[in-house]
User: Fold this.
Amino acid sequence: MSARTSVLLALLALLAAVPPLAAYFNQPFYLDLLRRVMIFAIAAVSLNLILGYGGLVSFGHAAYLGIGAYAVGILTHHGIHNGWLQWGVAIGASALVALAIGAISVRTSGIYFIMITLAFTQMLYYLGISLAEYGGDDGMRVPVRSQFSGLVDLNDGATFYYVVLGILAASMYLVHRLVNSRFGLVLQAARSNEARTRAIGYSPYPYRLVAFVIAGGLCGIAGALLVNHTAYLTPEFMNWTRSGELMFMVILGGIATTAGPLFGTTALLLIEDLLQGWSLLPKWVHEHWQLYLGVFLVLVVLFAKRGLAGLLPGGKDGSDG
Amino acid sequence: MILILEQTLNGLQLGVMLFLMAAGLTLVFGIMNLVNLAHGALYMVGAYLTTWCFQASGSFVFAVLFGLVGTLAAGVFTELVALRTLYERDHLDQVLATFGLILFFNEIIAMVFGRAALYSSIPEYLSGHVQLTQTLRYPFYRLVIIGIGFGVALLLWYVVSRTRIGMLIRAGASNRTMVAALGINIRLLYTIVFGVGAALAGLAGLLSGPIYAVQPGMGELILIQVFVVIVIGGIGSIRGAFAGALIVGMVDTMGRAFLKPTLATVLTPTAAETVGPALASMLIYLLMAVVLAFRPEGLFPSRGA
Assistant:
């Protein structure tokens, strides 16, 4: 077992131990914080599939977070609380939108791809703002959590936590299996050398598009979880800075590694949380925490290209590990 | 009819503003192959410096010069400290690092000037209206902006296509290595181009100060529209940036002004009320998707690269 795998398993075990510990020390705050971390980690895992393994630099991944959230929010607004249906619609809608956006944008490459994905997400953001019935600019409250025919009760903090943890582990496993399958190998081959991939008889387009759709659907689940977690939704879920944050989570953790997105998300959200509220830091840090985050981001990109997972041995550079 | 004329002028004004931003961004991309998200931050810096200096000194001309020189300096400084190392990196690194710079700049501005919007005024001699036709009075200041925009476009065209430095810029865009091999100091050229691009963004920012709100984060709102402009126009091409800026400025302004009333003739008033504004704010992105579906390289693909 490589060092990365052991650290990943240890981290997952640690996450699984949080609810009883939080209950014992009477610190429900940490349950909340880590649930949020894991939800964003699912989104980062999905982005890593296209960004890391596919080389598709999507600057609009927050769109699917928003669509998943809106799917659940809109159904709840109309009195439909069935979770199976809500989450199904969330995945389906995100995947469909990803198919439409991907069909156009995957044809392009490089800087055009970055800007097109950004622009489409911006479009959806404005669409969210203009949906007056669903709160428009301010967003709306989503007071009832998804209901799963009495099977699991998301209103129970710890249960919801384990559901998120389970989905996170499953999605990491899914992406791990995907990228090591024949499909994933073609996807990675197209990233490292498109001309050679074509020469041995594979057209990258369908592979990239399918990966784009899978990533969209997976991120849709994260959106559905997020709206259950926050109990409200706003167009801000789709803000372009959110897309930038998701990209940073993937890079910080270590691009194109199984564990990277989880490492990166945990590190970034904990750092954000500390900068904003850690009592040992002076008030002027709390007030302008984004300043330090910005500097941190620049430094990571300039000097720590391989991310946190890159610090650990195991796995070849740029491949799965 | 009057309304159409007025909205055309508004569209032109937005268009030249977008052009001032797009020119710098597209040059920096075309020549240095750098995606610079922090371009919007320079726009904000220009607006803040001029607004502050005008309030402090009372001289608008001095404030404008101060804003231009200040953004140029900020641009050159950023290039030397952070961006220079990014030229050889891939786009992903560039996007993330400049995204970090945005957070940095926005917070610096918030630290110095506070988060509330700053009140920005124009001097006496630029305020007031001009009687264009019998019934149309148009703000003089907006006409000045249109004039400046076209003036800068003309000047840029002259510099890029008729002077020695312009020749170097074009040569740098098509083959950097060759230009460097011929003994041109390419690093210096990069810094100059980046500085000029920054000053243009600052100019757009300081001109827009009295029209839009001067607040932290103001640059990002326009930045994304500018991306649409240069993608439509063709990345790296000044001509494309100009055409794209005017098209986007017009489409956006016209969409906001006329889409709702036009839809109301086809749909029910309530439906038009909902669909109109939504569609209007999405219009330029739809336009971009259509353009790219037919011309994946934009309308005026640059010959270099």
The longest helix of chain A spans residues 204-230. Confidence is low (pLDDT under 50) at residues 316-321 of chain A. Chain A has 13 helices and two strands. The first strand of chain A starts at residue 140 and ends at 141.
